[in-house]
Amino acid sequence: xxxEKPTGKARLQVAWAELLRWLTPGLGVKRWLFLLLAGITFIxxxxxxxxxxxxxxxxxxxxxxVLSYLSLRFLxxxxxxxxxxxxxxxxxxxxxxxxxxxxxxxxxxxxxxxxDTIARYxxxxxxxxxxxxxxxxxLSTLLRGxxxxxxxxxxxxxxADDGGSSGRLRNALGVLPPGDIRNCxxxxxxxxxxxTQLFQYRFGSQGGELEGHSFGNLFISALSELTGSxxxxxxxxxxxxxxxxxxxxxxxxxxxxIADKTLPMVAGEVRVHGESRIPQMGGKVRRVxxxxxxxxxxxxxxxxxLQADMVVIGPGSLYxxxxxxxxxxxxxxxxxxxxxxxxxxxxVATQPGETDGYTCADHVRALExxxxxxxxxxxxxxxxxxGELLPGYAWVQGGEDLESLSPVYESDVANAALxxxxxxxxxxxxxxxxxxxxxxxxxx
Length: 444
Hints:
By secondary structure, the chain is of the alpha/beta class. It has helices at 8-20, 30-57, 63-70, 77-104, 114-125, 136-146, 164-173, 179-188, 194-200, 215-227, 230-241, 299-307, 318-326, 329-337, 360-371, 402-405, 424-439; strands at residues 130-134, 153-157, 246-249, 256-262, 270-273, 284-291, 310-313, 341-345, 378-382, 408-411. Helix 6 packs parallel to helix 8 (179-188) and helix 12 (299-307) packs parallel to helix 14 (329-337).
């Protein structure tokens, strides 16, 4: 059955309603529209004075009656003012509409009106200041959801990675590992299209010595050489990709993550050097630490924590993504001192080699054992455990004593399509709802 086409009256009503939406508070349009109208008014007054002077002083010629007729002098002045004013408003409106579409063409989404594009941008621009601490795919997932709700995002990322492309570049060039930072930049990109795909591109076996390297890792490493600093390279990469927010390393020092693990059938503990090796070796993690110990934090990361409305710890690998950030003493101290609403997002599933058999309570105890207490105000736990996980993984249960450790909020934040991972939209909306329930709307 064919959909009935709207009548001319219906189309006119839709167009009029669309026009009125430009006057919605918060778009930042009305002030410039009124300024534009004021300028056009002054131009019109000047032209009217000039035409009136010509009309009064020019000798009688054939075109004067024509000018008199075109100026509608046979009508009352009020009617003439309404007619010419209406024509002028219509022409101005058409011009502004066309100009906006031309200027905003690169940023428009198909089927999304210009006014909606601007409204979304303004809403995100005034959004809550949120800082996320972690690394790996869990952090990237959360950032993809949060960037649709606010542009005031800061990701504080570990630089302890020593595996894969990041590890090779770290050893060969002496740069900080760019892998987790690259993933966060890609997640925060406004348009995860060709440039982001290029940034995430990994050379295959035909790449020779480039095999296994990510283009983004090479790009950031090259910028580090050109700009003379890793942080400037990350900032410039963010500008190239048009990211919503910023990505900051927790420290600019070259640190290594070390763990003591207990292995089955082995007496004593085994010391494992390197973030990438920790999950590869079986057994239970007893403790982790950084070498050199007590590295100074990146000042911008500390400042972001102290200015945040909300700080989210996780999701991500407990020992190799989250804790390396909190083991930087100034980061942990700034987190405690921050007046922000602080939330720990527990992983949906365990991770082989790191958190086998862990409950959410075990995650909390591990964080407190390594970084101290009073790190967060609330723990978000997944309550939906549908779907079959990959071998070696298990759903993370809350744990009987979890509520004695911290206030808990249970929610359905799992990804039904990819069991064992978080759903970006659900998790980010849950966090924003919790923030508003705690503080009230920060933006009207």
